[in-house]
């Protein structure tokens, strides 16, 4: 019986599918099942998959008769998996040969870790090395403002994600939605080495649904504020949100409201200790200093508040204090 299931959804992926599958089949760790869920593709994807299924018994294909979307397909793959370890993979990326071997070693040596990602490298239209934090407590705080793990690099213990699922309403940010919940119940870790090449091209789902992405990100961030007892009915909700996730060009009056919200968040976290106090406070401080720096305008009243009441003036670099002073006089 296999010890790992690899889940790969694909829709009209003929252009890059072979490279993606080959990168999985050529892993140094070979004891796995590759479960490919074909989302009713209309190109040559079914024929490509049929060829692989016939020549390698590790490949299993599920052909859908209607388009269901990547979130639903990943959920189905997880439900079908009978292994404790599950790896995710996209049909246009390339996994480096030692990816699975190194991720499984992390799990073997760290029973507290439930989700393991890796660094990744953008290639194609955009080239960049993406380095996510390796510290579980840092990652937990980072998720308040952004996703701290690359979804196609993820391997996880099936037992660790409990009943959480990818939610179709969050596409194309369904990964951020899921992992922002799972990180509350298990430790995350990123191997500090690029073990996946992420193909950046105009047809990336994250590129084609940019508006959906922005809306979903806001919903996911607000959902995390529930840990502080702050829900949708809270009239100050946006200010709490901007205290953990930078919002540029706020008017001075709202910057003041965000600063006051940040103080309240620090107080709530000091009581619950839900997030590491030092890391959480440092994250808040960084966001607030940047918010002040990116205020839409400045005036004497705002400067007076920053200097005498905000509690942040001492953290503002000297050169920025001078700039604030002169901008407030104009």
Layout of helices and strands:
Blueprint: E1 4-10, H1 17-25, E2 32-38, H2 45-55, E3 59-63, H3 70-80, E4 85-88, E5 94-95, H4 99-109, E6 113-124, E7 128-130, H5 136-142, E8 155-157, H6 174-182, E9 187-200, H7 205-208, H8 210-224, H9 237-244, H10 252-272, H11 277-293, H12 300-308, H13 318-329
Helix pairs in contact: 6-8, 9-10, 10-11, 12-13
Compact description:
The protein is of the alpha/beta class. The protein has two domains: 4-212, Spore Coat Polysaccharide Biosynthesis Protein SpsA, Chain A; 229-329, no CATH class. Helix content is 44%, strand content 17%.
What does this structure look like?
With 330 residues, the protein is of the alpha/beta class. It has two domains: 4-212, Spore Coat Polysaccharide Biosynthesis Protein SpsA, Chain A, CATH 3.90.550.10; 229-329, no CATH class. The chain is built from 13 helices and nine strands. The chain has helices spanning 17-25, 45-55, 70-80, 99-109, 136-142, 174-182, 205-208, 210-224, 237-244, 252-272, 277-293, 300-308, 318-329; strands at 4-10, 32-38, 59-63, 85-88, 94-95, 113-124, 128-130, 155-157, 187-200. Strands 1, 2, 3, 4, 5, 6, 7, 8 and 9 form a nine-stranded mixed beta sheet that branches. The N and C termini lie far apart (73 Å). 38% of the residues are buried.
